[in-house]
């Protein structure tokens, strides 16, 4: 496989396209609402109405506006249309509309505020290409960044370009990607590994799942470029078993890339070799932590270990290992194609590029969005999301999943970047963003996330194993109106202890929802408390009776 061969595949595929493209969303969300039946019906109707020569009904990945699904998009003469809430029986009307007929299916507005503020880099191909056809990916320029890296750049130059971009890890910690790559590249060792963390476990988050379902080759190409940059020849994609569609499409993509010589031995007829295998996780939230993930890949129980040594020096089987998450790898080809300086020109001084968020909760418009770093939270929630439904008011926005915090509506003008969210006691996280309205009880929210962390704790370290249980019990006592001010004080002490003494990120960040709700919504806690029978300064012992 050479560049000319890649170009020939792209040109042949583009020339075979039909006049009208009917894009049927077949991501997990729409598939759960009979998207596969909708596609079959559209194909049958196109043939029945004599349009099969001009109409291609294409399987595509997520279009983003998930709350309006199933979605069907139409591209004709440079114009784009969108049908929402499509049902299998709507197929005849949609095909008839292509001939100028009347269609009662709800039409979406391509200029809707939900789309207007978005900037697509990671999701540029989502909802456009067929994720199960490598030709679709090649036709829009796929694998050219890998070819450019292998034939025109030295590994150190690839690392330099990523460093120049300012890209930070999109898994939650926000560690500079170029610095991590450079460290692995310099680590001595004959064997090195690449690991893609697809163990997305935050409640309400589905960003990585969507990328894997919609554009698997984008992630594989990013992994291959990373492997060349750091000197690795083996990669592992760690994906949770709850994502069967993503796993299936990754398996198809890996097979296709190997057949064309884009993975395996002698990629693009160079000395570079790179193989990728899939490892399926069993749904343990803690396996999103890199050392627990590596243990799971090795076939061991997924529990974290102390660091140092860090994976860059001693990772899989004791070898230098580069671990990034799905969204981080999905940014790589665009950076190589357009340059690190281009990417660094997007976002803020310390938070470069775009970020994909799963906008969910008590919000009118929910789904996946990709926005430039630094965009105010208000623009996301009130403009793109449309605010709270049913005439309610937005009360809080929770970012970062169980590891994040709840940001009150008074702070909606906060820019969405790593530093600004951290100052408010929350984190960027992998990209979950849950909106709550004024009917939400914030103590119940804190209890929900604490229960999640309690159940997902691996139990290896005592602060997390026992501390989350005690914190949950105190929160339950508060919600049952059986707690006193001393219980609240004990809860705050436990938050500090668990945060500062737990082994890994799960325990260290588990108190965040409690800490942030106590900071901004303390009154809701205090309203549930009972008077202390021993007084505010008592140590809990009964006072002796006067004789």
Which key terms come to mind for this protein?
547 residues, Rossmann fold, alpha/beta, 41% helix, 14% strand, five-stranded mixed β-sheet, Glutaredoxin, 4 domains, single chain, Ubiquitin-like (UB roll), 14 strands, disordered C terminus
Structure description:
- This protein has 547 residues and is of the alpha/beta class.
- The protein has four domains: 17-109, Glutaredoxin, CATH 3.40.30; 141-344, NADH-ubiquinone oxidoreductase 51kDa subunit (Rossmann fold), CATH 3.40.50; 354-437, Ubiquitin-like (UB roll) (Roll); 442-526, de novo design (two linked rop proteins).
- The chain contains 23 helices and 14 strands.
- It has helices at residues 3-15, 28-31, 35-48, 91-97, 113-116, 134-139, 144-152, 155-165, 177-186, 207-214, 216-230, 244-259, 290-297, 326-338, 340-344, 377-384, 418-423, 442-456, 462-479, 485-501, 505-509, 512-520, 522-526, and strands spanning 20-25, 55-60, 72-76, 79-83, 107-108, 193-198, 234-240, 275-281, 321-325, 354-361, 367-372, 394-399, 405-408, 432-437.
- The strands form three sheets. A five-stranded mixed sheet has the order 2-1-3-4-5, with helices on one face. The chain has a five-stranded mixed sheet with strand order 11-10-14-12-13. The protein has a four-stranded parallel sheet with strand order 8-7-6-9, with helices on both faces.
- Strand 10 (354-361) and strand 11 form a beta hairpin.
- Helix 10 packs across helix 11 (216-230) and helix 19 runs antiparallel to helix 20.
- The chain is globular and about 85 Å long.
- The termini are far apart.
- Residues 538-547 have low confidence and may be disordered.
